[in-house]
Amino acid sequence: MPSLTEKTQSGIAAVLAGERGGWRGRLLFAGPAVIASVAYMDPGNYATNIQAGAGYGYTLLWVVLLANLIAMLFQALSARLGIVTGKNLAELARDNFPRPIVWIMWAVSEVAAMATDLAEFLGGAIGLALLFNLPLMVGMVITALVTYGILLFERQGFRPMELIIGALVGVIGLCYLAELVIAPIDWGAAAGGLMTPVMPDAAALTIAVGIIGATVMPHAIYLHSGLTQARATTHSEAETRRVLGFSNTEVVVALAVAGMVNMAMVMMAASAFHQGHAEVAEIETAYHTLTPLLGAAAAGMFLASLIASGISSSVVGTMAGQMIMQGFLHIRVPVWLRRLVTMVPAFAVVAAGVNATQALVISQVILSIALPVPMVALILFVTRREIMGPFVVGPGVRALALIGAAAVLGLNFVLLAEFFGLPIPFLAG
User: Fold this and answer.
1) Closest to 270 measured CA to CA, from 189, 215, 192
2) Which of 111, 306, 338, 389 is the most buried (most CB within 10 A)?
3) Which residues contact 13 (CB under 8 A, 6 or more apart)?
4) CA distance 351 to 360
């Protein structure tokens, strides 16, 4: 993976040595969580959030909050692993697990990377196709060219990539801030939905399962540890603790922004669709319905945010795929080859005539199968003193991680059971 520029590295060293302070010094440590946060604003979230808002108004906002808190915990643990050990999650798995397990983990993670890219790539392409009235295949070609162009900035190091991804995240955030201004939000109902855990019926539980069950993304867990592993060279326990403090702050801020974007999606859908259009469930339908309800500006910003989401998350997915392959196999492939391999399934799906929304659903099922691999490995490593030393997580954090993992993995099982038509008693009726 690329590194930081000498200027950024010297600035980080000056901060740790106490020679530089202030908010500009803290910003030198920012970037990894911003990149990882893209996974929580990818196109896969759009359809679920639209369904939640359209079908149940503001009622399921508390589920989005809960999902975001779980994401914060696991991304913080991933960053902690990279900072303390100087290795990423895939490298530690290669060094500590038997070879057959490593090969299985790599294979599952590669499939997950392709499934992730399928959702992200399709999202950007759908946005471009709708905004400019293009065939979906043309939108995919444009998305491929733009994401490849952005990936070329890797040659300049991490910092340019972090700034580009940060700018795209800013576009998503600004679009949804504008949506909240345009849409007539019932802020009292939104506050109630955020603070009051309510599950109206079995169908609402199904949507809640989708929100939480696909929250923690496999590639984001791998990637965050890699983005922090060599960011700051520390020479004492105190310096390491300071870097961890910077990292935890960034995780909270970046994931809070991602959470607010997801909440804004639900609130926009609740305001626009819940009364009279509760059946809206697909991205294309949402766009066409938004135009007469809230105007062309609202619909255009919805697509602009979707395009920014698809492009940024596709770039991040490719970066994660590179890190996974390099970590597990010690093999680095050219970025163009990595980009080609991960986007081939998306082109194949569209060429076969598969419905884009159905393809997004299938990709989430694949991610549900792959998620236990990095999540369980992460918990195993951060709770082992021989790996983490004095920075091993305490009993409280360990308990929270186990509860969060049990919740996410349990809900992923529900998603899989539903997809394959297995009976689930508490979802009956």
Assistant:
1) 189
2) 306
3) 232, 233
4) 15
Question: Taking a C-beta distance cutoff of 8 angstroms, is the pair 233, 88 a contact?
Answer: no
- Measured at the CA of 70, the angle between CA 312 and CA 48, to 5 degrees, comes to 55
Q: Quick one: which of 39, 399, 93, 385 has its CA closest to 224?
A: 39
Q: How many CB atoms lie within 10 A of CB 284?
A: 12
For 402, the token pair is: 């186990």
Q: Which amino acid is at 104?
A: I
Residue 276 to residue 271: CA distance in whole angstroms = 10
**Structure tokens of 367?**
């991610």
- Inter-residue contact 164 to 33 (CB < 8 Å): no
* 283 burial via Cβ count (<10 Å: 0-12, 13-18, 19+): buried
**Which CATH number applies to 32-420: 3.90.550.10, 1.20.1740.10, 3.30.429.10, 3.50.50.60?**
1.20.1740.10
Kindly report the length of the chain. 429
pLDDT value at position 425?
A: 65
SS3 200: coil
Q: Which residues in the chain land under pLDDT 70?
A: 1-6, 213-214, 281, 357-358, 360-361, 364-365, 424-429
Answer whether 274's CB lies under 8 Å from 56's CB.
yes
Instruction: Find out whether 179 and 268 touch, Cβ atoms under 8 Å.
Output: yes
Sign of the alpha-carbon dihedral angle for 74, 80, 82, 88: negative
Question: What residue type is 65 in one-letter code?
Answer: L
How many whole angstroms separate alpha carbon 176 and alpha carbon 108? 34
Whether 281 contacts 47, CB under 8 Å: yes
